[in-house]
Design a protein that fits this description.
Keywords: Cell cycle, Cell division, Centromere, Chromosome, Kinetochore, Mitosis, Nucleus
Number of domains: 2
Structural class: mainly alpha
GO biological process, one term: chromosome segregation
Largest sheet: none
Helix content: over 70%
Radius of gyration: 41 Å
Pfam families: Nnf1
Number of helices: 6
Organism: Halcyon senegalensis
GO cellular component, one term: nucleus
Amino acid sequence: ESGDGGSEVGAAPGRAQLFSAVVDTFLEKLVAAGSYQRFAGCYRSFYKAQPEVTRSIYEQFVAQLQASIKEEIQEVKDEGNLEMLFNSLDKIVEEAKNREESAWRPSGVPEEDVRSALVPYLLKHRSYLRKGLREKEQENKAAAESVLAGRSRIEELRRLIQARRQAWQ
């Protein structure tokens, strides 16, 4: 019913086509499970009285059920924008096939998985902290030199004051 793009590029069917095929298979199995013989068995007395009408009612029931299910599935596809999502997922998978490095997969050991994610962050943070430490050490060195220069100036002024006091006395 819906145009799933039967002329899509690539040999493998897309996810939208697979979804439609699954729905169609489900409908076929549903109709097979609710065969005419079972239907007629449930309404045995009516079937014995009017077998042609029973067949007609069964066919209408099955057609209506299939149409209703297809309509509901189409509404779900439209509301969830499944066609676009399936197509974008197909593109992501195709792009992943062309990558040379393999995608990350969990190892099954949470400590190792966390470590593999945290180590790069922690190394970057350590580098940032070391840079900040170097800057602070330079600031402290400059402040210490300034303090030493100030102490030298104070000592020089103290000697000058002492020399003037002795000269004045």
